[in-house]
Design goal:
Blueprint lengths: L8 E3 L2 E3 L5 E6 L4 H11 L6 E5 L9 H15 L4 E4 L13 H13 L5 E5 L4 H13 L3 E8 L6 H13 L4 E6 L4 H18 L4 E5 L5 H10 L3 E5 L9 E2 H11 L2
Parallel strand pairs: 3-4, 3-10, 4-5, 5-6, 6-7, 7-8, 8-9, 10-11
Antiparallel strand pairs: 1-2
Function: Involved in the third step of the chorismate pathway, which leads to the biosynthesis of aromatic amino acids. Catalyzes the cis-dehydration of 3-dehydroquinate (DHQ) and introduces the first double bond of the aromatic ring to yield 3-dehydroshikimate.
InterPro entries: 3-dehydroquinate_DH_AS (IPR018508), Aldolase_TIM (IPR013785), DHquinase_I (IPR001381), Type-I_3-dehydroquinase (IPR050146)
Pfam families: DHquinase_I
Length: 256
């Protein structure tokens, strides 16, 4: 039996942190038509969660356009939980955006009532995190606080500290994604996940080692305590993601 979170997050009847790790498919689209076309293809694949990486959307600076896209997206995906992510440029965001505009967009998405989870980074300043956490709490939206390193894998204690920091700052889910330079780094990520889950962090975790070397963490990370993994629907949002069908088949042997 895999290591479960001491507390669970429930969104639209999907339990995060329970007996089974959940599979999320990210949507990356430049305009509303592409977004909806992707969603129509992905809906029959029945992912547990869908993430919209709005930082890849060409209308990102127009809040009304983004809200219309969220509304249209919800009409296609039905009751599948939706993560709204406007990734900051310093941690893999696809477009530059002022923090003022980014915050206004995130708060508007939260108020829309159409998103279930919002993901922001620990690198943001305290005022930004406080504002998003407050808005999310007021509207019943769950908060992911995340940390990404696309160049390396930090030491085990640093990874654990990032997950603990997310919990301390009020996250409902803590996330770390790092880049391995070799297989020892993959073991570092898994060991840090295990340590965080058993010693320090009671909320659901998401931990990922990226690229080819880290693929095993997308399949087996749940055994060490990670509660969400990411698969490809059509477009990848991070290096190392694999197709949802292949991921499900591999996971069926590990979590039977």
């Amino acid at each position: 039996m895999r290591l479960q979170s001491k507390t669970q997050v429930n969104v639209r009847n999907v339990v995060i942190g329970g007996p089974d790790p959940r599979i999320c498919i990210p949507l990356v689209a430049v305009d509303k038509k592409e977004l909806i076309d992707q969603a129509k293809v992905l809906r029959p694949l029945s992912p547990d969660i869908i993430e919209w990486r709005v930082d890849g959307y060409k209308g990102i600076g127009e809040i009304a356009d983004c809200l219309a896209a969220i509304d249209a997206l919800r009409s296609v995906i039905g009751d599948i939980p939706l993560i709204f992510t406007c990734r900051i440029e310093d941690e893999g965001g696809m477009q530059a955006l002022s923090q003022k505009t980014r915050l206004a967009l995130i708060e508007a998405a939260i108020r829309s009532g159409e998103i279930d989870i919002v993901d922001i980074e620990l690198i943001n300043d305290d005022a930004f995190i406080d504002a998003v956490r407050s808005a999310a709490g007021n509207y019943g939206v769950k908060l992911i606080l995340s940390y990404h390193d696309f160049k390396k894998t930090p030491a085990e204690d640093i990874i654990v500290d990032k997950l603990k920091q997310a919990q301390t700052l009020g996250a409902d889910i803590a996330k770390v994604a790092v880049m391995p330079t070799g297989y020892p780094d993959v073991l570092t990520l898994l060991q840090a996940t295990l340590k965080a889950r058993t010693e320090a962090v009671t909320i659901p975790l998401v931990t990922i080692s990226m690229a080819r070397e880290g693929v095993i963490t997308r399949m087996a990370g749940g055994l060490f305590g990670s509660d969400i993994t990411f698969a490809i629907g059509q477009a990848s949002s991070a290096p190392g993601q694999i197709a949802i069908g292949d991921l499900r088949q591999a996971m069926s042997f590990l979590y039977a």
